[in-house]
Amino acid sequence: MSQGSVPLTSRPEWQALTSHKTELENTHMRDMFRDDPSRASRFFISGGGLSLDYSRNRMTADTVTKLMALARGCGVPERIEAMFRGDHINVTEKRPALHVALRDTSGAPLHVDGTNITPEVETTLNRMAQFVDDVLSKRWQGHTGKAFTDVVSIGIGGSFLGPKLVSEALRPYWHGQLNCHYVANIDGTQIAEVLRRVNPETTLFLIQSKSFRTQETLENSKVAREWFLNNGGSQDQVAKHFVAVTANTPEAVNFGIAEDNIFPMWDWVGGRYSLWSAIGLPVALTIGMDNFRALLSGANAMDQHFRNTPLEQNLPAVMAMLGLWYNNFWGAETYTILPYDHYLRSLPAHLQQLDMESNGKSVTQEGEPLTYQSGPIIWGGVGANGQHAFHQLLHQGTRLIPADFIIPLETHNQVASHHVTLFANCLSQSRALMSGKNLNEAKAELKAEGMSPEEIDKLAPHKVIPGNKPSNTLLMDKSTPETVGALIALYEHRTFVQGIIWDVDSFDQWGVELGKQMGKGILDRLTVDTAEGSEPSDSSTDNLIRLFRSHHSS
Ligand SMILES: O=P(O)(O)OC[C@H]1O[C@](O)(CO)[C@@H](O)[C@@H]1O
């Protein structure tokens, strides 16, 4: 659904935000906190087992009102309903985006183009449960009758990042019967390293590819199969060791996967939203099906919050609109994700794909060029490590980089006083970003250290930390299947809301196709004697191809 004829930046709500930003430009957040002791409690909301302190943002209550007026003007509530209803919100591919259906265990019917998909979702979950049970109870064993010890998941992009994040995040819930490894890259080092560590008699391979056409996944799967066959396995035993998850059954069968070993995917689930489907099998195998269902139920709790909560108290909506505030009105180009939890270390990488593949777009749903910025660059890394690395730029660099701090109140690992120290670090970073240190304070500190007035004048400017840098703090009691599910779902919906305002299709990814198309011709030229000029190229590519070929011919 496009937003009609009024261009986004001409909307009265947009213009109101433009002038409102001018009003706020010279107000420091420090002063906002000083003037309003209730600020923290006024800008604190909870939902789906998570809580959000968004008081450290360049905003007032009026800003929230204005941002939500824009959201309503752009039809956010209607689009949320359209998503949950199964409308074709992925307009360029003419399909719904129904990842929410994968975690809705209410049994309520949901129709996609006239077919009720609920039974299929339930059947697949039950098949997953049966499979997990068969493997864990050793009814399904390796070809020499030994129990499986390792699962190798082969997939890339959404068929990799989400499951890997969740496997790591829920490490305390691993039952210990199976190790889990991920292979994504076409860099042979990755699969070589994994295969060195596993035993062909006791390794189960999951080939994870919605399309079953992805070069990296297919090549790695062939390598895995060859390795199995060269290390004691036979062709008819492949079925005991190879399972696929795909929406392209014929190709998986062509590859040699037994039809009974194929779990379905559907075109109404986008790759980057697929960890909730059978693509989550490596997770289910390592944490057990009950915990996997708890993950789904946590995500579902966030879905219900998102669907049923007014925008002003709605975590995904508030985070989306604040992100958009900096992206479109304050010139922020990047956004950083800072989990203060080792278990969540792969969250930035997952959110990078989720957000950048969804909203890295330049035209509206109608194909008109955007006249404003769409999705920002997403990056990040675990605290406190980042504090001793890139946080310097957050504090004193020239760029505005909004940050999300994410921290559980409790740890799974009570080690000395580490957790309280970690928590202190998290709070001190967000406080320092907000408050900063002005010139007078810097000078006073140096004076107290006994420095001369000349030295103070020289050094003080370097010690100034401007502050007024925005951040959110997201809290959860503990990293559990439920809270991790809710956290990921929260960011999915945040991305969706921003895409609505920017009027882009957040569920396609045409931009990744050109490189794939060109890759085929270049691979041919690198490996066989294809004449230069036989297809479009450029002198740089030609030169690098010659260089590679001459290196490998000597
Ligand atoms: O699951 P598939 O079809 O192998 O695709 C893997 C990934 O490749 C992409 O299409 C990008 O190339 C992602 O959107 C997707 O998650």
Major pleated sheet: 6 strands, mixed
Percentage of residues in strands = 5-15%
Largest sheet, order of strands side by side? 1-2-13-12-10-11
The outline comes out as globular
What molecules are bound to this protein? Answer: 6-O-phosphono-beta-D-fructofuranose
Give the mean pLDDT. 96
Structural class: alpha/beta
Kindly describe this structure:
It comes from Marinobacter iranensis. InterPro entries: G6P_Isomerase, G6P_Isomerase_C, Phosphoglucose_isomerase_CS, SIS_dom_sf, SIS_PGI_1, SIS_PGI_2. This is Glucose-6-phosphate isomerase. There is one protein chain. The chain is of the alpha/beta class and 554 residues long. The chain is 48% helix and 10% strand. The chain is built from 22 helices and 13 strands. It has helices at residues 12-24, 29-35, 39-42, 61-73, 76-85, 118-136, 161-169, 188-197, 215-230, 238-241, 249-255, 281-287, 289-308, 315-329, 347-359, 391-396, 418-435, 439-448, 453-463, 481-502, 513-527, 539-553; strands at residues 44-47, 50-53, 111-112, 115-116, 150-154, 179-183, 203-208, 242-246, 262-264, 334-339, 377-380, 403-408, 471-476. Strands 1-2-13-12-10-11 form a six-stranded mixed β-sheet, sandwiched between helices. The longest helix is centred in the last third of the chain and has 22 residues, at 481-502. The termini are far apart. 6-O-phosphono-beta-D-fructofuranose binds next to loops.
